[in-house]
């Protein structure tokens, strides 16, 4: 990964068509301002600030333990911040529970697939429409005419998203029977189904081969160009990052060490040093969980460790439509809201 300076970069200029689609969708900027997240004695994010401009593909990169996933989870409401704020247009995301993030126009695809393997592709994607559904349990159970019309509209929209992503032939196939690369597309389709203005992708190329990664790069650019959404990308694959990102923010040990277009990042000495190795200990997920477990044990509590916000396997409709897998976690008290 340390030789990423030789990777071809993308032209950071946003096309006129993309800008028009972004303006039509009303995409605002995401502003991360002076955000700190602390787990006991571990400062996972240390006064981090950056802005994702409307219609851009913005990558967040850094070595293992840099704080990328923590930042991701702070934005989506899984972790509470100790200082600072995250705003998306008029919405202050850091004041909202994770279950309300999707309704503000933020969709998330998971690093570890949270699909229901026994459910069809269409049913998995339909989960992303959950927060857009007006009907309740009883109206759906009674199969009232208006709820049936609403369900039909949601299914048509979900099917259209699947067609756009090239997975319409698998609509009625159980997700667990599909190749890994196709399952990743199903996950992205579900995130798009919630009609986001910002699509957050957490290591989408993890586990993919080079051909699948190349296809993913084209897909990410197509989603931005044709739908008009902004995209935040957390990724370790530097060839993918440099090939699709308009702007890059680099973290190391919880601090922002660089911010700029790909060509600037490739030449940044601090970034090169970070990827060649560092003398400090890594702030790993295991270290965070150990710190929380020690505090819980000392307090005699059985609270869930903050690092366990998303498990593998299935997730319910509230989780997947909001982009969260658990209640928000206060890093100081480790108590859920």
Which descriptors would you attach to this protein?
337 residues, alpha/beta, Rossmann fold, 6-stranded mixed sheet, 4-stranded antiparallel sheet, 12 helices, 36% helix, globular, ATP binding, ABC_transporter-like_ATP-bd, ATP-binding cassette domain-containing protein, ATP hydrolysis activity, ABC_AA/LPS_Transport
The CATH topology is Rossmann fold
CATH homologous superfamily designation? P-loop containing nucleotide triphosphate hydrolases
Strand content: 15-25%
Overall mean pLDDT stands at 81
Low-confidence stretches: 302-327
Distance between the termini: 39 Å
Radius of gyration: 20 Å
What's the total count of β strands? 10
The name of the CATH architecture is 3-Layer(aba) Sandwich
CATH class: Alpha Beta
Subunit organisation of the chains: single chain
The neighbouring-strand order within the major sheet is 6-7-8-3-9-10
Number of domains: 1
Q: What general outline do the C-alpha atoms trace?
A: globular
Could you describe the largest sheet, including whether it forms a barrel? 6 strands, mixed
Q: How many helical stretches? A: 12
What class would the helix/strand composition place it in? alpha/beta
Query: What series of H and E elements makes up the topology?
Result: HEEEHEEEHHHHEHEHEEHHHH
What is the helix fraction of residues, given as a range?
A: 25-40%
């Amino acid at each position: 990964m340390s030789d990423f300076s030789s990777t071809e970069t993308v032209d950071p200029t946003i096309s006129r068509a993309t800008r028009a689609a972004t303006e039509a969708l009303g995409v605002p900027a995401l502003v991360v301002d002076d955000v700190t997240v602390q787990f006991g004695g571990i400062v996972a994010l240390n006064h981090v600030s950056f802005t994702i401009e409307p219609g851009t593909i913005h990558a967040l990169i850094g070595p293992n333990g840099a704080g990328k996933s923590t930042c991701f989870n702070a934005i989506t409401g899984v972790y509470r911040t100790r200082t600072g704020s995250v705003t998306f247009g008029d919405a202050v995301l850091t004041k909202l529970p994770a279950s309300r993030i999707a309704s503000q126009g933020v969709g998330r695809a998971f690093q570890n697939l949270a699909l229901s393997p026994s459910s069809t592709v269409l049913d998995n994607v339909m989960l992303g429409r959950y927060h857009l559904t007006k009907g309740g349990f009883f109206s759906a159970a009674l199969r009232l005419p208006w709820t049936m019309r609403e369900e039909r509209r949601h299914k048509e929209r979900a099917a259209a998203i699947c067609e756009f992503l090239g997975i319409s032939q698998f609509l009625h196939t159980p997700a667990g029977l599909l190749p890994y690369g196709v399952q990743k597309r199903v996950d992205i389709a579900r995130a798009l189904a919630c009609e986001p203005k910002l699509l957050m992708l957490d290591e989408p190329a993890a586990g993919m081969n080079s051909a699948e990664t190349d296809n993913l790069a084209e897909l990410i650019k197509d989603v931005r160009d044709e739908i008009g959404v902004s995209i935040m990308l957390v990724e370790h694959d530097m060839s993918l990052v440099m090939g699709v990102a308009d702007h890059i923010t680099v973290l190391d040990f919880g601090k922002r060490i660089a911010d700029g277009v790909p060509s600037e990042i490739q030449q940044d000495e601090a970034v090169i040093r970070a990827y060649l190795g560092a003398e400090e200990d890594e702030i790993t997920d295991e270290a965070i969980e150990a710190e929380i477990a020690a505090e819980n044990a000392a307090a005699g509590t059985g609270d869930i460790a903050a690092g366990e916000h998303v498990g593998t396997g299935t997730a319910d409709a509230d989780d997947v439509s909001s982009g969260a897998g658990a209640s928000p976690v206060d890093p100081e008290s480790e108590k859920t809201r």
